[in-house]
Amino acid sequence: MPRGRPVQSTNRQNIVELLYFLGEGYGYDLWKQYIKVFPRCTMRSIHYHLKKGLQTGEFIIKEIKKESGNYSWGTSVEKVYYALGPHAKPKGDDRVRKVIRKSV
């Protein structure tokens, strides 16, 4: 048995399913969709798995947008949009498809 933590993650696979139906999304938006379908998790966990998915090739950065607005931390925000990478293996979960259809 190999040492260390397994590379697979249920949370990351759930994010893969979300991106399969959404096409692309940024961290906060993915978290809002995630908690509609799957058991609650923290936004920090979603961001961790997005970064880890970049390393494993499950996600790619599609684009980075800077938007202006009146936020509590300042006047601008940087949104990193993610999409499925070459190593993502979506299964096409029906639960996700139904929730995405309702929200669109």
Describe this structure in words.
With 104 residues, this protein is α+β, with helices and mostly antiparallel strands. Helix content is 46%, strand content 25%. The chain contains 4 helices and 3 strands. The protein has helices at 10-22, 27-37, 43-56, 94-103; strands at 25-26, 59-71, 74-84. A 3-stranded antiparallel sheet has the order 1-3-2. Strand 2 and strand 3 (74-84) form a beta hairpin. The mean pLDDT is 92.
Percent of residues in β-strands: 25-35%
List SSEs in N-to-C order: HEHHEEH
Largest sheet, in brief, is:
3 strands, antiparallel
Helix/strand structural class: alpha+beta
Output the number of helix runs. 4
Q: Average pLDDT across residues?
A: 92
Radius of gyration based on Cα positions: 15 Å
Strand order of the largest sheet: 1-3-2
Global geometry: globular
Number of strands: 3
Quote the distance from N terminus to C terminus: 44 Å
Low-confidence stretches: none
Instruction: Classify the helix fraction into a percent range.
Output: 40-55%
Entry keywords:
104 residues; three-stranded antiparallel beta sheet; 4 helices; 46% helix; 25% strand; globular
In brief:
With 104 residues, the protein is an alpha+beta fold.
Task: Write the topology of this structure.
Layout: H1 10-22, E1 25-26, H2 27-37, H3 43-56, E2 59-71, E3 74-84, H4 94-103
Helix pairs in contact: 2-3
